[in-house]
Design brief:
Blueprint lengths: L1 H18 L2 H25 L5 H19 L4 H5 L3 H5 L5 H20 L2 H9 L6 H26 L5 H17 L3 H4 L7 H7 L1 H9 L5 H11 L1
Helix pairs in contact: 1-6, 2-3, 3-6, 3-8, 3-9, 6-8, 8-9, 8-12, 8-13, 12-13
Length: 225
């Protein structure tokens, strides 16, 4: 119980810091405006009630949003010299790491909740498949959680937030493009299925179609851990 208590205390502390700084709101607003602009730009052309274009752009926008959130998770503590002070408290390293990870995930979860007002608006113009939307939302949360896990891990390796940001973007970009044909075209055929299974995008797209496969869920959980 103490482990869980310290973890949630750390998560709440980090989440309060996110919402107490103007930069977090700026990042959130820019993300939502860009995301919805790209969606409506295509939705009006398609002309049917679907959130599919919204989630088509999501991995690429999360590629920028999540590292911007996690870059200071531990790197800032190092640069300001507060990491030693933090660890002198009755809190373990894993509690600090998991707490910061949970806070980053909850921040993105709040951002992704904005899809539901769009879905309700679309429901007036057509029959929205809420099962598919639930799958898309879960897929978005799991994708963001993988990116957040990478971000916190990378942030622990640097004292510079900019370095943590750039490396996190690079690592998450590799996770996305692993299954692309431009990558698999230059590797032996026997290795291609393994490389494609490592791509976060293939698992994200599977879940976002409303298909809940235990292999996809296991992929996300194992990478996060």
């Amino acid at each position: 119980m103490k482990w869980h208590g310290n973890t949630w205390t750390m998560a709440k502390k980090e989440l309060q810091q996110y919402f107490s700084t103007p930069s977090a709101y700026i990042i959130l607003v820019v993300f939502l405006l860009l995301w919805e602009f790209l969606y409506f730009r295509i939705a009006f052309v398609i002309g049917y009630a679907s959130l599919e274009p919204l989630f088509y752009f999501l991995p690429w926008l999360l590629l920028l949003l999540v590292p911007a959130i996690t870059m200071g998770a531990i790197a800032q503590e190092k640069s300001e010299g507060t990491i030693e002070l933090l660890l002198t408290h009755p809190v373990k390293e894993r509690e600090v790491v998991v707490g910061k990870f949970i806070a980053a995930c909850l921040f993105v979860v709040c951002a992704l909740l904005f899809i539901f007002p769009i879905a309700l608006a679309l429901n007036h113009y057509g029959n929205v498949d809420w099962g598919v939307i639930a799958g898309q939302y879960v897929a978005g949360v799991l994708l963001a959680s993988v990116f957040a896990a990478v971000g916190v891990a990378v942030s622990s390796l640097f004292a510079s937030q900019i370095s943590a940001l750039l490396v996190t973007v690079a690592v998450n970009f590799i996770f996305i493009v692993l299954g692309f044909e431009m990558v698999t075209a230059h590797i032996p055929l026997v290795v291609i299925p393994f490389i494609e299974r490592l791509s976060v995008l293939s698992h994200f797209e599977s879940l976002s179609r409303g298909v809940f496969d235990l292999r996809d869920l296991w992929y996300f959980v194992s990478v996060i851990v």
